[in-house]
Amino acid sequence: CLDNGADTDFEWVYTGYTPYDDGDGGKGSTEAERRANRKVRDAKRRAMFVEFFVKCLKRIKSEFPELKVGGPAMCWFHKDYFRDMLKACKEAGVAPDFISWHYYGNKPSVIIGNADKARRLCDSFGFKKCELIINEWHYLGDYSWKGLRSIDPAVRKKVWESPASHNGIDSSCFTLSTLAQMQTSKYDQAYFYGCRHTGSWGYMDEFRRYYKIWYALNLFGSIMKDCTNLCASTCDGTVSTLAAKSADGKTGWLLVSDYRGKDEKVAVDVKGVREVLSATLLDHERNNESINVSFVD
After folding, report:
1. Are 251 and 223 in contact (CB under 8 A)?
2. What residues contact residue 269 under an 8 Å CB cut-off, 6+ apart?
3. Which of 166, 167, 186, 266 has the fewest CB within 10 Å, making it most exposed?
4. Full-model pTM
5. How distant is the alpha carbon of residue 277 from its chain centre?
6. Are 277 and 291 in contact (CB under 8 A)?
7. Phi and psi torsions of 58, nearest 5°
8. Is residue 6 scored above 60 in pLDDT?
9. Which residues pair with 293 in a beta bridge?
Protein backbone atom coordinates (compact mmCIF):
# COMPACT_ATOMS: atom_id res chain seq x y z
CA CYS A 1 0.00 0.00 0.00
CA LEU A 2 1.66 3.21 -1.16
CA ASP A 3 1.12 5.93 1.42
CA ASN A 4 1.27 9.57 0.41
CA GLY A 5 2.37 10.60 3.92
CA ALA A 6 -0.08 13.49 3.99
CA ASP A 7 -0.82 13.47 7.70
CA THR A 8 0.98 16.72 8.39
CA ASP A 9 -0.67 18.65 5.58
CA PHE A 10 -4.09 17.29 6.56
CA GLU A 11 -3.60 18.36 10.16
CA TRP A 12 -2.44 21.80 9.14
CA VAL A 13 -5.47 22.34 6.92
CA TYR A 14 -7.97 21.33 9.58
CA THR A 15 -6.49 22.64 12.81
CA GLY A 16 -5.07 25.91 11.50
CA TYR A 17 -1.58 25.65 12.95
CA THR A 18 1.65 25.39 10.98
CA PRO A 19 3.97 22.69 12.38
CA TYR A 20 7.09 24.03 10.66
CA ASP A 21 9.41 26.99 11.11
CA ASP A 22 11.44 26.28 7.97
CA GLY A 23 9.17 28.03 5.47
CA ASP A 24 7.00 24.99 4.73
CA GLY A 25 3.97 27.00 5.81
CA GLY A 26 4.34 29.04 2.63
CA LYS A 27 6.58 31.88 1.55
CA GLY A 28 5.38 35.48 1.40
CA SER A 29 4.86 38.58 3.50
CA THR A 30 1.04 38.28 3.59
CA GLU A 31 -1.32 35.40 4.25
CA ALA A 32 -2.64 35.64 0.68
CA GLU A 33 0.88 35.28 -0.70
CA ARG A 34 1.66 32.38 1.62
CA ARG A 35 -1.60 30.68 0.67
CA ALA A 36 -0.78 31.04 -3.02
CA ASN A 37 2.70 29.69 -2.40
CA ARG A 38 1.34 26.69 -0.53
CA LYS A 39 -1.07 26.01 -3.39
CA VAL A 40 1.79 25.93 -5.90
CA ARG A 41 3.92 23.81 -3.58
CA ASP A 42 1.12 21.33 -2.92
CA ALA A 43 0.40 20.99 -6.65
CA LYS A 44 4.07 20.13 -7.25
CA ARG A 45 4.01 17.61 -4.41
CA ARG A 46 0.86 16.02 -5.76
CA ALA A 47 2.35 15.72 -9.24
CA MET A 48 5.52 14.16 -7.83
CA PHE A 49 3.58 11.65 -5.76
CA VAL A 50 1.27 10.72 -8.64
CA GLU A 51 4.30 10.06 -10.84
CA PHE A 52 5.89 8.00 -8.06
CA PHE A 53 2.67 6.04 -7.45
CA VAL A 54 2.17 5.15 -11.11
CA LYS A 55 5.79 4.05 -11.62
CA CYS A 56 5.73 1.87 -8.51
CA LEU A 57 2.33 0.41 -9.38
CA LYS A 58 3.43 -0.49 -12.91
CA ARG A 59 6.71 -2.03 -11.79
CA ILE A 60 5.26 -4.04 -8.90
CA LYS A 61 2.36 -5.36 -11.01
CA SER A 62 4.79 -6.43 -13.75
CA GLU A 63 6.93 -8.33 -11.23
CA PHE A 64 4.13 -9.70 -9.05
CA PRO A 65 0.86 -9.75 -11.05
CA GLU A 66 -0.79 -11.96 -8.43
CA LEU A 67 -0.57 -9.26 -5.74
CA LYS A 68 -3.15 -6.56 -5.14
CA VAL A 69 -1.50 -3.15 -5.26
CA GLY A 70 -3.09 0.22 -4.61
CA GLY A 71 -3.40 3.07 -2.15
CA PRO A 72 -2.51 5.69 -1.15
CA ALA A 73 -4.21 5.62 2.30
CA MET A 74 -5.25 9.24 1.86
CA CYS A 75 -5.96 11.01 5.16
CA TRP A 76 -9.35 12.06 3.81
CA PHE A 77 -11.29 11.53 0.60
CA HIS A 78 -9.41 14.02 -1.58
CA LYS A 79 -11.34 13.75 -4.84
CA ASP A 80 -8.97 15.94 -6.88
CA TYR A 81 -5.96 13.93 -5.71
CA PHE A 82 -7.64 10.66 -6.65
CA ARG A 83 -8.70 12.07 -10.02
CA ASP A 84 -5.11 13.05 -10.89
CA MET A 85 -3.87 9.65 -9.72
CA LEU A 86 -6.44 7.62 -11.66
CA LYS A 87 -5.98 9.74 -14.78
CA ALA A 88 -2.22 9.11 -14.69
CA CYS A 89 -2.81 5.38 -14.20
CA LYS A 90 -5.13 5.34 -17.21
CA GLU A 91 -2.59 7.14 -19.39
CA ALA A 92 0.15 4.73 -18.26
CA GLY A 93 -2.00 1.71 -19.04
CA VAL A 94 -1.98 0.32 -15.50
CA ALA A 95 -4.93 -0.28 -13.18
CA PRO A 96 -4.82 -0.02 -9.36
CA ASP A 97 -6.46 -2.95 -7.58
CA PHE A 98 -7.83 -0.62 -4.91
CA ILE A 99 -7.85 2.95 -3.68
CA SER A 100 -7.93 3.77 0.03
CA TRP A 101 -8.50 6.65 2.44
CA HIS A 102 -9.40 7.50 6.06
CA TYR A 103 -12.39 9.12 7.71
CA TYR A 104 -12.47 10.83 11.11
CA GLY A 105 -15.66 12.75 11.72
CA ASN A 106 -19.24 12.39 12.94
CA LYS A 107 -21.42 12.00 9.85
CA PRO A 108 -22.22 8.45 8.66
CA SER A 109 -23.75 9.91 5.51
CA VAL A 110 -20.34 11.34 4.51
CA ILE A 111 -18.60 7.97 4.90
CA ILE A 112 -21.21 6.21 2.78
CA GLY A 113 -21.38 9.09 0.30
CA ASN A 114 -17.62 9.02 -0.23
CA ALA A 115 -17.85 5.41 -1.40
CA ASP A 116 -20.49 6.42 -3.96
CA LYS A 117 -18.27 9.26 -5.21
CA ALA A 118 -15.23 6.99 -5.39
CA ARG A 119 -17.15 4.33 -7.32
CA ARG A 120 -18.30 6.85 -9.91
CA LEU A 121 -14.78 8.28 -10.18
CA CYS A 122 -13.11 4.89 -10.68
CA ASP A 123 -15.75 3.80 -13.18
CA SER A 124 -15.30 7.02 -15.19
CA PHE A 125 -11.70 5.99 -15.91
CA GLY A 126 -12.69 2.43 -16.72
CA PHE A 127 -11.48 0.97 -13.40
CA LYS A 128 -14.71 -0.84 -12.61
CA LYS A 129 -12.92 -3.63 -10.73
CA CYS A 130 -10.97 -1.23 -8.53
CA GLU A 131 -11.88 -1.96 -4.91
CA LEU A 132 -12.78 0.76 -2.44
CA ILE A 133 -11.21 0.58 1.00
CA ILE A 134 -11.65 2.91 3.94
CA ASN A 135 -8.59 1.75 5.82
CA GLU A 136 -9.11 3.90 8.94
CA TRP A 137 -12.37 5.24 10.35
CA HIS A 138 -13.53 6.40 13.76
CA TYR A 139 -15.92 8.89 15.28
CA LEU A 140 -14.46 12.34 15.93
CA GLY A 141 -16.84 14.65 17.76
CA ASP A 142 -17.38 18.37 17.42
CA TYR A 143 -14.27 18.97 19.54
CA SER A 144 -11.91 18.18 16.59
CA TRP A 145 -8.31 16.94 16.78
CA LYS A 146 -7.24 19.92 18.87
CA GLY A 147 -9.87 19.10 21.48
CA LEU A 148 -8.88 15.45 21.49
CA ARG A 149 -5.36 16.44 22.57
CA SER A 150 -6.35 19.26 24.90
CA ILE A 151 -5.18 19.40 28.52
CA ASP A 152 -7.94 21.85 29.49
CA PRO A 153 -10.06 20.09 32.20
CA ALA A 154 -13.37 21.32 30.78
CA VAL A 155 -12.49 20.19 27.27
CA ARG A 156 -11.17 16.84 28.47
CA LYS A 157 -14.38 16.20 30.40
CA LYS A 158 -16.40 16.73 27.22
CA VAL A 159 -14.02 14.66 25.11
CA TRP A 160 -13.75 11.71 27.49
CA GLU A 161 -16.82 11.68 29.76
CA SER A 162 -19.81 13.28 28.04
CA PRO A 163 -22.34 11.44 25.83
CA ALA A 164 -20.60 13.05 22.84
CA SER A 165 -17.18 11.81 23.98
CA HIS A 166 -14.61 10.10 21.80
CA ASN A 167 -15.66 6.58 22.78
CA GLY A 168 -19.03 7.38 24.39
CA ILE A 169 -22.63 6.74 23.37
CA ASP A 170 -22.58 9.16 20.40
CA SER A 171 -19.46 7.41 19.17
CA SER A 172 -21.18 4.04 19.68
CA CYS A 173 -24.34 5.04 17.80
CA PHE A 174 -22.27 6.59 15.03
CA THR A 175 -20.30 3.35 14.73
CA LEU A 176 -23.38 1.11 14.69
CA SER A 177 -25.17 3.35 12.18
CA THR A 178 -22.11 3.36 9.94
CA LEU A 179 -21.61 -0.40 10.18
CA ALA A 180 -25.27 -0.97 9.34
CA GLN A 181 -25.12 1.24 6.26
CA MET A 182 -21.76 -0.16 5.15
CA GLN A 183 -23.32 -3.58 4.60
CA THR A 184 -25.11 -2.32 1.49
CA SER A 185 -22.60 0.38 0.50
CA LYS A 186 -20.04 0.44 -2.31
CA TYR A 187 -17.18 -0.37 0.08
CA ASP A 188 -15.24 -3.60 -0.38
CA GLN A 189 -13.35 -3.33 2.91
CA ALA A 190 -13.46 -1.09 5.96
CA TYR A 191 -11.16 -0.99 8.99
CA PHE A 192 -12.29 0.50 12.27
CA TYR A 193 -9.54 2.39 14.08
CA GLY A 194 -8.59 1.07 16.53
CA CYS A 195 -8.63 -1.87 18.88
CA ARG A 196 -5.71 -1.43 21.22
CA HIS A 197 -6.40 -2.57 24.75
CA THR A 198 -6.13 0.92 26.21
CA GLY A 199 -5.68 4.51 25.13
CA SER A 200 -7.46 7.11 23.02
CA TRP A 201 -8.13 4.67 20.20
CA GLY A 202 -8.60 1.57 22.31
CA TYR A 203 -11.68 0.04 23.93
CA MET A 204 -10.60 0.32 27.59
CA ASP A 205 -9.31 3.16 29.72
CA GLU A 206 -6.15 3.03 31.84
CA PHE A 207 -8.11 1.27 34.62
CA ARG A 208 -9.23 -1.43 32.15
CA ARG A 209 -12.83 -0.24 32.20
CA TYR A 210 -14.65 -0.72 28.92
CA TYR A 211 -15.54 2.33 26.91
CA LYS A 212 -19.05 2.55 25.44
CA ILE A 213 -17.55 1.84 22.03
CA TRP A 214 -16.57 -1.65 23.22
CA TYR A 215 -20.21 -2.50 23.87
CA ALA A 216 -21.17 -1.27 20.41
CA LEU A 217 -18.55 -3.40 18.70
CA ASN A 218 -19.43 -6.37 20.92
CA LEU A 219 -23.10 -5.99 20.03
CA PHE A 220 -22.44 -5.87 16.30
CA GLY A 221 -20.12 -8.85 16.58
CA SER A 222 -22.89 -10.83 18.27
CA ILE A 223 -25.26 -10.06 15.42
CA MET A 224 -22.78 -11.11 12.75
CA LYS A 225 -21.82 -14.26 14.66
CA ASP A 226 -25.38 -15.54 15.05
CA CYS A 227 -27.01 -14.17 11.91
CA THR A 228 -24.82 -14.07 8.83
CA ASN A 229 -27.62 -13.61 6.29
CA LEU A 230 -28.24 -9.87 5.88
CA CYS A 231 -31.82 -8.98 5.04
CA ALA A 232 -32.05 -5.21 4.82
CA SER A 233 -30.37 -1.97 5.78
CA THR A 234 -32.18 1.35 5.96
CA CYS A 235 -31.50 4.92 7.04
CA ASP A 236 -34.24 7.41 7.86
CA GLY A 237 -33.02 10.63 9.41
CA THR A 238 -31.14 9.80 12.60
CA VAL A 239 -32.27 6.16 12.66
CA SER A 240 -30.41 3.34 10.90
CA THR A 241 -31.51 -0.28 10.90
CA LEU A 242 -30.00 -3.59 9.88
CA ALA A 243 -31.93 -6.86 9.74
CA ALA A 244 -30.21 -10.24 9.73
CA LYS A 245 -31.12 -13.88 10.26
CA SER A 246 -29.39 -17.18 10.91
CA ALA A 247 -28.72 -19.70 8.16
CA ASP A 248 -31.59 -21.92 9.34
CA GLY A 249 -33.97 -18.96 9.47
CA LYS A 250 -34.94 -19.59 13.09
CA THR A 251 -33.10 -16.65 14.66
CA GLY A 252 -33.25 -13.03 13.68
CA TRP A 253 -31.78 -9.72 14.77
CA LEU A 254 -32.94 -6.20 14.12
CA LEU A 255 -30.39 -3.49 14.91
CA VAL A 256 -31.93 -0.08 15.51
CA SER A 257 -29.45 2.74 16.01
CA ASP A 258 -30.65 6.27 16.75
CA TYR A 259 -27.68 8.58 16.33
CA ARG A 260 -28.20 11.98 17.97
CA GLY A 261 -31.96 11.75 17.56
CA LYS A 262 -34.21 14.01 19.63
CA ASP A 263 -37.32 11.80 19.81
CA GLU A 264 -37.91 10.01 23.11
CA LYS A 265 -39.59 7.09 21.34
CA VAL A 266 -38.85 5.24 18.11
CA ALA A 267 -41.63 3.11 16.62
CA VAL A 268 -40.55 -0.10 14.88
CA ASP A 269 -42.98 -2.11 12.74
CA VAL A 270 -41.98 -5.79 12.76
CA LYS A 271 -44.09 -8.20 10.73
CA GLY A 272 -44.27 -11.98 10.81
CA VAL A 273 -43.00 -12.45 14.37
CA ARG A 274 -45.33 -14.22 16.80
CA GLU A 275 -43.03 -15.30 19.60
CA VAL A 276 -41.93 -13.25 22.61
CA LEU A 277 -39.12 -10.89 21.74
CA SER A 278 -36.14 -9.73 23.77
CA ALA A 279 -33.93 -6.74 23.24
CA THR A 280 -30.44 -5.58 24.13
CA LEU A 281 -30.21 -1.91 25.05
CA LEU A 282 -27.15 0.30 24.80
CA ASP A 283 -27.43 3.94 25.84
CA HIS A 284 -25.57 6.49 27.94
CA GLU A 285 -26.57 4.74 31.19
CA ARG A 286 -26.92 1.05 30.18
CA ASN A 287 -24.42 -1.33 28.63
CA ASN A 288 -26.02 -4.02 26.43
CA GLU A 289 -28.73 -4.63 29.03
CA SER A 290 -31.36 -7.27 28.24
CA ILE A 291 -34.94 -6.01 28.42
CA ASN A 292 -38.35 -7.45 27.53
CA VAL A 293 -40.19 -6.26 24.46
CA SER A 294 -43.93 -6.31 23.82
CA PHE A 295 -46.12 -5.43 20.85
CA VAL A 296 -48.62 -2.59 20.98
CA ASP A 297 -51.04 -4.67 18.92
Report:
1. no
2. none
3. 266
4. 0.86
5. 32
6. no
7. -65, -40
8. no
9. 277
